[in-house]
């Protein structure tokens, strides 16, 4: 199989963005582009949209694995949510699952990111979170306290 420098760079950059939680716009940064060029002048960075599509595709393909993994956990987890608005004033909510594994390592998994539809109310946010919990976690494994 021939070495595809564009695919190789896309995969490496995709992993970097996922692990370090970098923004897709990183591929447009002239200093980052120069850094990549100096590493290998044959590599071509993917566009911001291509990188976005690669990550969304990878997330979709891993979603069932994540669901099965979380359902199989025999220890406690903590869920956190973060809400923010984009520059275009679109609101989003992200839910992350945190836990300590059997080797006493702190771990986390981003479960999903949703756009928050209008009206932006506590009920709307609650419905999103409950829907996510129903999708990811077997009901016998969790309880919700307010």
Automatic annotation (TrEMBL):
It is found in: Nucleus. It comes from the Eukaryota. Keywords: Metal-binding, Nucleus, Zinc, Zinc-finger. InterPro entries: RNaseH-like_sf, ZnF_BED_domain_contain. The keyword Nuclease does not apply. The keyword Zinc applies. Transmembrane segments: none annotated. SUPFAM superfamilies: Ribonuclease H-like. Its main location: nucleus. This is 43628_t:CDS:1. It comes from Gigaspora margarita.
